[in-house]
Specification:
Two copies of one chain form a homodimer.
Chain A lengths: L3 H9 L7 E6 L2 E7 L10 E5 L5 E5 L5 E6 L20 E6 L6 E3 L6 E3 L5 H5 L3 H4 L1 E6 L10 H16 L4 E5 L5 H11 E2 L5 E4 L12 H14 L5 E6 L7 E5 L3 E3 L8 E3 L6 E3 L5 E3 L13 E2 L7 E5 L8 H7 L4 E6 L16 H10 L3 E6 L12 H8 L3 E2 L5 H14 L2 H7 L13 H7 L1
Parallel strand pairs in A: 6-9, 6-10, 10-12, 12-13, 20-21, 21-22, 22-23
Antiparallel strand pairs in A: 1-2, 1-5, 2-3, 3-4, 7-8, 11-19, 13-14, 14-17, 15-16, 17-18
Helix pairs in contact in A: 4-5, 5-10, 7-8
């Protein structure tokens, strides 16, 4: 409810929540959908959702003119989580898994809580009905920091099932903390896709003025319906001016800021496409083309006994024994620089080289990546790289530690150890960028 | 030795290796110092070191004119690792610790080896003699991936000693892999500095055409002699066009590319200064001013029983027990997003919250940082952050995981546990950026 004063004027103009209105304030003019007032907060502030997906708050007292310019009431009556089916629009399945995009701030406690009914997403973003025939399914309500391989498997199975049931694209809403782990997992689990699988989320909850939830969801639905890119990727804000989102390959993306809306960045590659809220899609590189005749191949086994090990000064190599004792099958090392471990420190008790050898002798697959994140590792430039290669370590090219970690668990789940070893540094789904001529030259 | 043909012409013009020459090729003109020919490679290629520090190779046959324009022979006779002492130049101590900057490619094996005599650095970079009275000391020859807290202590003691002996600035050459750990350690160990302590290195060895060794060393010496910034920092290439270096605060820098020359980037802050090879220094923010009357305070104790723990899906919380069993005193968590651990996964055996409580109950100090690297952590926005705060975790503001890790070991070495807990999230030497008003507003 808005303030009595505001409600009275709105009523007199025949304006209801959910309808498109136009307001004037001084020399400025605003057009958008009148949103419900949050339970708490100043009741004199009208919340308007603009066409770019953002909410703005306008002090009712500062508004000189207000009129109704259209109704979007129909979009507020989606039955059971479906938009009105319109002819000519593509079918998009929206799988809801939780995270900030489906959360609101509880102004009483200051905490953030999840929507109990994810279908509410459709009510909050009525524009989706103009982009595609969207069907929402509530898969789970899991904070992304709690996601494990079993949730990855559930998402993969549901996405494959959605295509089988006629969806032309899939959007998965997901918490942002580990979205890049999930996007990598789905990239390996879902191969030969007929259409796009788009993971999206929000860095700020949907009832905050600075929320990216709406635009991310709108852009993701455009990508799912119209990009023609049959790959798994993330679609999130991509510039500080919030004018477009980037669809980034699921194995080449990483969250690189705790709170900024453009936190998701491509690592060692360009985005697959840029997209704005109006649905303009600009393809930026090679991609697998959609083909609805194709059947998704689901490879959803996973071996969770894989560790991601970060190297740093004074680090304790007996960690390797911890993992050997617990029957681990693989380790991805987030090494330093071009891919180095401390092999010869001034402290006798530290001996990562022996640890590495013990791990390999225990039948573990050991992959080397770099904590630098950007760039490619090499086992041949420096002596330590050669020693580690000789000890059986596999250099993982330009994969991020996170992608290599997800890949190794997936390889060990779906293939034997030998095969996993062979495929770890081989490109399967775009996770490894081929070396450029310049790189070859540079290393020569 | 160059080819017979080339040597004969050079002799006829009275040109020796180490002298300044001018060459014409077509319409291009080059001026620089004639370098010795590497043992292997095409002997018809003249290697010229340009004033920006880069070597270029020119095919002798393509050169239409060549003449001697000056001698720098004197710079090739530095006795015992000192430049000629010139009046009016500042005294700079150069501490050599190893790494690529003091390495050459062994073209026979393709491997990289370290210089046996670090004094050779002065021969390779005769320009240093014009910038400062440089004295080289060979501290150690340690690959940076092998550096531990004892090497940090050695560097800190030597740097403090250098100021005591009259140095006005200190340059430390260092491998790049862990240079940002060392720069953070020295930032805490060396307080109340009278002048700059500049860590520098090279991403490419000095005999490669693309080497950044010369320019980094030249720029670092300028900073050490003339910046007036009494802080510890790194000075490395800062743009892809290689036109300047950045001097970045030692606690705010991270290596973010495996091989690029501009791999060292400021995280959550701007560089302290930019500097080019000509010695133009552009200050970019607030800094501690040099004061040669001040005495460096050496606080070089260190507690190495601190772990850096990376969070990821399926990660194993029993790791905490590994560290408890081994008597660890502290843990820095590289958590996800705003600073979260998986507290409630679908797998019962994973329980990081209990692990966190056990660690705190075992008298460990537990600090929370983000693997996003950029941005600030918060223990209040989401419920998990609150639960972790309640369990005793300390949110480390906008420190990188690496800086917080180094800081916690330093705090525990120099202070009691209680004091360490109190100071971990308190800014001591510029490692924590104060919240901006915009951030406060944004979180409200």
């Amino acid at each position: 409810m808005y303030s009595k004063e505001a409600e009275s004027v709105l009523r007199s103009k025949g304006i209801s929540v959910g309808e498109k209105i136009q307001l004037e304030r001084g020399k400025e003019s605003f057009e958008g959908i009148l949103m419900p007032r949050p339970d708490t907060g100043d009741q004199g502030i009208l919340v308007i959702k603009l066409s770019n997906g953002y909410n703005i708050g306008l002090d009712f007292k500062s508004v000189s003119s207000i009129k109704r310019v259209g109704s979007s009431a129909e979009t507020f009556s989606f039955p059971k989580g479906k938009t009105h089916v319109r002819k000519g629009l593509k079918a998009v399945k929206l799988l809801y898994t939780g995270g900030t995009i489906g959360s609101k701030v509880d102004y009483a406690t200051g905490g953030v809580y999840m929507l109990t009914k994810p279908e509410e997403l459709l009510h909050e973003v009525p524009e989706l009905a103009d982009i595609a025939n969207v069907e929402v399914e509530h898969l789970m309500s899991v904070a992304s920091e709690d996601m494990t391989y079993t949730e990855w498997q559930t998402m993969a199975r549901k996405a494959a099932g959605a295509f089988k049931s006629g969806a032309e694209g899939v959007v998965i809403t997901h918490g942002t903390d580990t979205m890049h782990f999930s996007s990598a997992a789905l990239s390996f689990m879902l191969q030969s896709l007929p259409g796009p699988v788009v993971l999206t989320g929000a860095q700020r909850s949907s009832d905050r003025g600075s929320s990216d939830a709406f635009m991310n969801l709108i852009c993701s639905t455009h990508i799912a319906a119209h990009s023609g890119i049959a790959e798994v990727g993330t679609c999130m804000h991509s510039s500080s001016s919030d004018d477009y989102c980037a669809f980034i390959r699921g194995t080449k993306v990483r969250k690189l800021h705790t709170s900024a809306r453009d936190a998701f960045r491509p690592v060692n590659g360009a985005p697959l496409a840029k997209v704005n809220a109006e649905g303009n899609i600009h393809h930026m590189g090679a991609y697998n083309k959609s083909d609805l005749g194709r059947k998704a191949v689901l490879k959803d086994e996973y071996e969770p006994k894989v560790a991601l090990l970060y190297m740093y000064p004074n680090s304790d190599p007996t960690l390797i024994n911890h993992y050997i004792d617990r029957g681990y099958k693989g380790i991805i090392v987030a090494a330093t620089g071009l891919g180095h471990m401390p092999l010869s420190t001034s402290h006798k008790e530290y001996d990562w080289l022996q640890g590495l050898k013990d791990a390999v002798a225990s039948d573990m697959v050991v992959g080397i990546t770099s904590q630098c994140l950007f760039g490619r590792v090499s086992g041949t430039v420096y002596r330590y790289g050669r020693m580690m290669t000789d000890a059986g370590a596999i250099y993982c090219e330009d994969m991020t530690p996170e992608t290599a970690y997800v890949k190794l668990g997936w390889l060990l789940g779906n293939h034997g150890r030998k095969e996993a070893e062979k495929l770890l540094a081989t490109n399967l789904v775009g996770e490894i960028t081929p070396r450029t001529e310049a790189e070859w030259r540079d290393e020569a």
